[in-house]
Write a structure and sequence with these properties.
The protein is mainly alpha-helical. The chain contains 25 helices and no strands. About 5% of the residues have low confidence.
C-alpha cells in the first residue's frame, strides 16, 4: 500500500505542478502561483455556485410533485455521465500513454501497484467532479427536506463510491476503442471517429431520457425516475440508502462499487503489460516511394507540423474539438426541432427569443471551449529547444499555432452559422453578425491561449493529460473565455431596450479592437516570453 500511495502522490503532484509551487524560491514565480491559486479558487467557487443554483431550480420543481429524492438521483446520474464522458478519452493517456512507462516499469515495484496508482489518479480526478455536483445537490436536498442525522453520514459515505463504476466502464470502452483502431492503418483517425460516435451517442441517448413528450421533463414524473433507475440500477440503491436510510441498500451500493473496482484493478494489473503492448502496437506500412521535395514558406511548414502534432494526439483532438462537435450537432438538430420545442425540452421558455437576439454569443460559447493554443506550447515539452533554435521568427512560430486553432474552429463555425441562419430564419444583418462574431471569438480565444501558455507554460510532464486537461494555462484560458462571454451576455440583457443588432455590432467592434491589441502584444512581447521558456 505504501508504494501505491507514494506513486499516486508523485503523479498528482506532477500533474498539477504542486512540486514547483511548493518549492520555488523566486518571488516572481511565487507571485504567479499565488494569483493562479486565487484564479483556480474563484473558478471552483463559480462552479459550485452554478451547481447549487441548478440543483435548487430542479428541487423547486420536484418539491411541487412531492418527489424531492429525485434530485439526488438526477444529479448522481449527471455525475456518472460526466465521469464516464471524460474518462473515455482520458483513461488511455493516464493508464497507457505516459512517457515514463519504461522508467516506472523498471522500478522494483509490483506491476499491480503501478496500475493501482494510475487508477487511483483517475479516481481522484473524477472525485473532484463528483464533489462539485453532489455536494451542492446534497445541501439543497437537506435544506428542502431537513432529513435526520443519518442522511449526512450516508451521504458522505456514498459520495466516495459514486465515481468507481463509471471509471471501470469508461476505461474498458476507451481501451477497446484504442485496441480496435490500432489494428488498422490510420489508427488515430479511427480512434477519433469511434470515440466521437460514442460521445455523440451518449449526448443523444441522454436526451432521449426526456422522452418524446416535453411535459415529462417539466413534471419530473415517475417515468423519468424509472428510466434513470433502469439505465443505472445503482442510482436506486443510492437513493434508497441516502434518502430512506436503508442499510441493505447502503451495503449493497458500497459493496458492488468497491468489489467491482478492486477486481477491475487486479485484473488490469495482471494483464497490464499485454494490454499496453496491444494498445501501443500500430499498423505500419513498409511501402515508400521517392517523390520530389516541395519547398514551402516557414509559416506554412510550421503550420503543417503543428497540424500533424495536433492530429497525432487523440486526447488533444477530443478535448479541444468536442465543443465544435456539439455546436454542429446543435445546428443540425435545430433544422428538425424548432427553437420553441427545444426551449420546452430544456425548460427554457424564452429560449426562442434568446436565440434570435443572442445567437452569435451562443455559438461563441462553443468556440471558447475549443482552444488548442492554451496547451500547444506546453506540449512541446523537452523538445522546445528545437523551436527556439530554429532560424524562424518567433512570431511565425506563434502564428502557426494560432492558425491550427482557426483551422479547427472557423470551418465548423461557418457551416453551423449557415445552418442556424436557415433554421432561425435570420435577416441580412443578423446573418452577418451570426457569422462574424463567432469568427472574431475564434481569433480572440486562439490569441488568449497563446499568451496565457507563454505566461504559464508546463514543459515538464509525463503524460499529455496533465497538460491538455489539468494545466494552469488551460484552466486560466477557459476562465478568461468565460468572462469574455459573460460580459457581452450581461450587456445584451441590460441593454435589451436598444436595438439588438446595434448592441451586437458594438460587441463585435470591441472584440475586434481587443484582438488587434492582443496581436500587437504577441508581436512585441512574444519573442521575450518565448525565449524565456
Amino acid at each position: 500500500m505504501i508504494n501505491i500511495w507514494r506513486l499516486t502522490k508523485i503523479q498528482l503532484i506532477s500533474s498539477f505542478g504542486l512540486n514547483k509551487a511548493l518549492h520555488t524560491r523566486g518571488v516572481k514565480e511565487r507571485r504567479k502561483m499565488l494569483w493562479l491559486s486565487i484564479g483556480i479558487l474563484i473558478g471552483i467557487v463559480m462552479m459550485a455556485v452554478v451547481s447549487f443554483g441548478y440543483s435548487f431550480i430542479i428541487a423547486e420543481t420536484l418539491e411541487q410533485i412531492g418527489r424531492p429524492e429525485l434530485l439526488l438521483a438526477i444529479m448522481m446520474a449527471v455525475t456518472c455521465l460526466i465521469g464516464f464522458f471524460t474518462t473515455i478519452y482520458k483513461a488511455s493517456g493516464v493508464l497507457f500513454g505516459s512517457k515514463d512507462y519504461d522508467l516506472v516499469m523498471s522500478l522494483p515495484i509490483k506491476t499491480s501497484h503501478i496500475v493501482a496508482s494510475r487508477v487511483a489518479q483517475l479516481y481522484v480526478l473524477n472525485l473532484f467532479f463528483s464533489l462539485m455536483v453532489m455536494v451542492p445537490a446534497g445541501i439543497v436536498y437537506a435544506i428542502k427536506v431537513n432529513p435526520g442525522a443519518l442522511y449526512y453520514l450516508y451521504f458522505l459515505i456514498t459520495l466516495l463510491f459514486i465515481p468507481l463504476v463509471p471509471i471501470i466502464a469508461a476505461t474498458i470502452i476507451g481501451a477497446l476503442i484504442s485496441w480496435f483502431s490500432s489494428r488498422f492503418k490510420g489508427s488515430r483517425i479511427i480512434t477519433l471517429i469511434l470515440t466521437f460516435i460514442v460521445i455523440i451517442g451518449i449526448i443523444v441517448g441522454s436526451g432521449q431520457i426526456n422522452g418524446n413528450n416535453p411535459q415529462l421533463l417539466a413534471d419530473m414524473s415517475t417515468q423519468i425516475a424509472d428510466q434513470i433507475y433502469n439505465l443505472y440500477p445503482l442510482t436506486l440503491m443510492y437513493v434508497n440508502a441516502v434518502c430512506s436510510f436503508q442499510m441493505d441498500s447502503l451495503v449493497l451500493f458500497v459493496a458492488i462499487s468497491l468489489i467491482s473496482f478492486v477486481l477491475f484493478t487486479m485484473l488490469l494489473g495482471n494483464k497490464y503489460k499485454a494490454i499496453h503492448t496491444g494498445l501501443t502496437t500500430s499498423f505500419s506500412s513498409n511501402k515508400y516511394q521517392m517523390k520530389s521535395l516541395e519547398v514551402s514558406s516557414p509559416l506554412y511548414t510550421l503550420y503543417k507540423k503543428e497540424l500533424r502534432r495536433y492530429f497525432s494526439s487523440t486526447l488533444y483532438v477530443l478535448n479541444t474539438s468536442i465543443g465544435m462537435v456539439m455546436l454542429l450537432v446543435m445546428a443540425v438538430t435545430l433544422l428538425f426541432v424548432n427553437a420553441e420545442q427545444l426551449g420546452q425540452i430544456l425548460e427554457v421558455p424564452e429560449l426562442s427569443n434568446y436565440l434570435s437576439r443572442l445567437a452569435p454569443l451562443f455559438v461563441s460559447v462553443f468556440v471558447t471551449l475549443s482552444c488548442t493554443t492554451s496547451s500547444s506550447i506546453s506540449l512541446e515539452g523537452n523538445n522546445i529547444w528545437i523551436l527556439k533554435s530554429a532560424p524562424v521568427p518567433t512570431l511565425t512560430i506563434l502564428l502557426s499555432k494560432i492558425a491550427v486553432n482557426l483551422t479547427i474552429t472557423v470551418p465548423i463555425v461557418v457551416v453551423s452559422s449557415v445552418l442556424l441562419m436557415i433554421s432561425l430564419g435570420t435577416g441580412g444583418i443578423e446573418s452577418l453578425l451570426l457569422l462574424v462574431i463567432p469568427v472574431l471569438y475564434a481569433c480572440l480565444t486562439a490569441m488568449i491561449g497563446v499568451i496565457v501558455n507563454l505566461k504559464l507554460p508546463k514543459l515538464e510532464w509525463t503524460n499529455e493529460v496533465s497538460v491538455i486537461k489539468q494545466s494552469a494555462s488551460v484552466l486560466v484560458t477557459m476562465l478568461i473565455g468565460l468572462i469574455s462571454l459573460l460580459i457581452p451576455f450581461g450587456l445584451s440583457l441590460l441593454l435589451s431596450d436598444l436595438n439588438g443588432n446595434l448592441v451586437l455590432l458594438g460587441i463585435g467592434l470591441l472584440i475586434l479592437v481587443v484582438c488587434g491589441a492582443m496581436y500587437k502584444y504577441i508581436q512585441s512581447k512574444g519573442e521575450l516570453l518565448f525565449r524565456a521558456l
